[in-house]
Amino acid sequence: MNQLKPALMILFGSTGDLAAKKLFPSLYTLFTDGWLAPQTRVLGIGRRDWSQADFQDTVLTAVRASQPVRGDDVSDFLEIFTYHQMDISQPDDYTALWRTVEHMEEAVGFSHNRLFFLATAPELFPVVADQIGRGQPRVPGSFRRLMIEKPFGRDLASARNFNQHLRRYFEEEEILRIDHYLGKEMLQNILVLRFANHLFEPTLSAEHIDHIQITISEKIGIGQRGGYYDHSGALRDMVQNHILQLLALLTMERPERFDSEGLRDAKVKLFRSIRHFSTDILTEAVVLGQYATGPADEKAYRSEKGVDPESTTETFAALRFDIDNPRWQGTPVFVRTGKYMARRHASITIVYKQSAYPSLPQPAEPNRLIIRIQPAEGVDLRYNIKKPGTELTAIPVEMDFCQTCNFPGQSAEAYVKLLMDAWRGDLNLFTRWDEIEATWTLIDSLLDQRDDLPVYPYPAGRDGPEQADEMMSRHQRQWLDV
Ligand SMILES: NC(=O)c1ccc[n+]([C@@H]2O[C@H](COP(=O)([O-])OP(=O)(O)OC[C@H]3O[C@@H](n4cnc5c(N)ncnc54)[C@H](OP(=O)(O)O)[C@@H]3O)[C@@H](O)[C@H]2O)c1
């Protein structure tokens, strides 16, 4: 096992939700698994007037909430954390920060490997990136990497603007744009399923596949994130990034090279072949919804904290994507995602074309390949057998591989994988600028006409508005409950 190079991780937003929920627990996993070199340090930044002890207590509480903690390890782990209070919107505050960075590096005696992590409000990304770019140029022989949380812009123009800003100071390979979905075990598994089996890949084309369904649903509303979400909505929050990445991994051509450039080239090519939302297909291809109160008296979206009482922000989107390339022409991809739906669930269902077997009294059901992403992970294959007995009848049966049951606790948490790859400089799971550009170009073709679309209410706890079911009926399909 090659330990990760010693580095200083400088975490902007260390008092926030992402740090507590994902980053501290993931760092603990890396620490206890022996990946972190002894000189590794984390400098946490926040506005709160916290002491060193307050910060380390927060880290400990966050780690304890996620996994059992070993007493002997944990004090060594907490030692790597230092807190620095500042207002990151104030350029003057950076002088003291860079002094702290220098002192920490001198104390452990390592060179200038620095991993900057931007886990703060997106409005602050440009100012922080600017200050890092100016104040901390890359030191020859060391690495400097900038990890940026989503969202990367709110449309093509703002994303381009931000990117141009970044490129003044950073090389493309120093910018690690995070889409944490790519860190999920089952998304990486898509590539293995496709390219390490001969079974599926030759069948993944319009010749064999009737359609594909992708669902990412959440069982809860927006919680405390109203202020952010009301300016975002499902299209920006889920579709432009997570869903399109998933779709690309599933439908892209075989990469010419299985390295980060080859993989991302293949994805970009795919993104560019997805049909844009022109006016004539808009209402047939898109249904937007917003949760209203439900049977258990759930709060309606418009009554949530931080949300405009007249808001038309969509908390649900159902879309039809068409891929205009020879492999997929004619096979639609239906996508739905939303808040406050019936259950928390993410999956892909690939529905095969119906086979013709004239001797059967009833046509056999189409085969289905189901990739379960969360909460349970696994791969199911649905196919037909002859129903035992004297008559010739076909019945569907399932071969279900439950990854969660077969390898309990072994799937790496997305942020463990993402942090490890960032440390190593492995860019596979980070989105390159041209991916962002292509996905925003596509989603902008819809956002430009967004005001012409109705936003249908749906009761909390239902899988979106009825209009999403009607859209599927018009396309002679139905949402499958897998
Ligand atoms: N939370 C998640 O599950 C999640 C998932 C995916 C992506 N993200 C992304 O991750 C980023 C962070 O999200 P979050 O949920 O962790 O946000 P959050 O809970 O609101 O935390 C924001 C952090 O930024 C700090 N901050 C804000 N203004 C500051 C200033 N002027 N100076 C210094 N520090 C400042 C806050 O420090 P103080 O509190 O001390 O002021 C806090 O540590 C966002 O871009 C979000 O979109 C979050």
Q: Could you characterize the architecture of this molecule?
A:
This protein has 482 residues and is α/β, with parallel strands linked by helices. It folds into 2 domains: 8-149, Rossmann fold (3-Layer(aba) Sandwich); 182-413 and 434-474, Dihydrodipicolinate Reductase, domain 2 (2-Layer Sandwich), CATH 3.30.360.10. 35% of the residues lie in helices and 20% in strands. It contains 15 helices and 16 strands. The chain has helices at residues 17-32, 52-66, 71-79, 94-108, 125-135, 156-167, 185-195, 226-229, 234-251, 260-272, 279-285, 403-406, 414-424, 433-447, 466-474; strands at residues 8-12, 41-46, 81-85, 114-118, 144-148, 175-178, 209-217, 286-292, 316-321, 333-338, 345-352, 368-374, 378-386, 394-402, 430-431, 455-459. Strands 14-13-12-11-7-10-9-8-16 form a 9-stranded mixed β-sheet, with helices on both faces. The radius of gyration is 24 Å and the shape is globular. The two termini are 39 Å apart. The mean pLDDT is 96. It binds NADP nicotinamide-adenine-dinucleotide phosphate (NAP). NADP nicotinamide-adenine-dinucleotide phosphate is lined by residues 13-18, 21, 46-48, 87-89, 119-122, 124, 149-150, 180. The site of NADP nicotinamide-adenine-dinucleotide phosphate has 21 residues, from helix 1.
